Amino acid sequence: MPPSERFAVEVVSRTLVQASDPPRDFPAVLPVSNLDLILGSFHVFFIAVYPAPAAGFPAVAEAARAALPAFLSRFYPFAGRVVANASTGVPEVVCGNAGAELVVARAGVALADVDFADADASLGTIQVPFERGLALSLQLVRFACGGFSLTWGTDHLLVDGHGLNWRRKWRIDANLRQVSRRQVPRSHGQELRYHQKHHGKDSG
Asked: Which of 59, 62, 99, 160 could be cross-linked to 18 through a Cys-Cys bond (beta carbons 3.0 to 4.6 Å apart)?
């Protein structure tokens, strides 16, 4: 069967998750670097693809939901918001534990039928647009074959492409691999980065 040129992703739920143990005396506002300000604020995504887990997709969603509060406690700015300073207009990160977003969605296509050679048609569709200002949108998309994708969506002002490697320190990836108990086929790509600038209206 030829790869699908078009497929839809339907959002099932969006939940705000706060840090379970916010660090004491953490700065209320974090400035961003001048180097980051050169490119400005735009969304970046890191997408990992997994085969159908032996324990089922609900177990994956529960593992993510259970691990996220502790992760936000350790990497606290991701529970914040990116806002423009009222006086200068310069973006900054407000660290008030407003919460990260956990998205659960489904796609009506099997992973094997997704044309990953076309980044815009595949990765651009797997990623779920999220509200501007959110520091983190963690997204789980279940595919028709039972496989799923885990997407980290954040703002370039917090991390760049290589900076996304901090996600390796979160135990969710190890937990998901343990839940899956199978190695991801090479044809599924395993780990894929996708950067996209959003201009004009906020996505949400």
From this structure: 99
